[in-house]
Amino acid sequence: AVVSTQSTGYLLTSDERYNFCSGLSTTEFKRFRFLLIEAVLATDLKKHFDFLAQLNAKTVDGEGMDWENAEDRILALQMCIKLADINAPCKEFDLHTQWTRRIVDEFYQQGDNEAELGMSVSAYMNRHKDEPRVP
Fold first, then answer.
1. Which of these, 17, 48, 59, 72, has the minimum number of CB atoms within 10 Å of its CB?
2. Which H, E and C letters describe 60-111, residue by residue?
């Protein structure tokens, strides 16, 4: 997650040809970057049950989402990103396997990046140590 959040600002501004944020004011850019980081962090499985508890507190046990409340709108954004992130098992098996291989490759690439930066490689992201179990 640290590498992901650090890279968001760089990716948004590193090459002017692809900087779709160049027309934003400083305030708008800061808000967009904040929302992007919140979305990226929502994919961290360590916080999966925290998000579910927040959503359940609002929807099952509570009054529902308050769309006037910025925190509730961010929670809705985070849940949409989570659903998009974890939907692979719902796909046809061959397509699911294809996406699983892609995520394993992405994890290994992150591990390679961490090693290049002199960081300790995150669990399950070391291609030289961790064997993927993808059919």
1. 17
2. CCCCCCCCCCHHHHHHHHHHHHHHHHCCHHHCCHHHHHHHHHHHHHHHHHHH
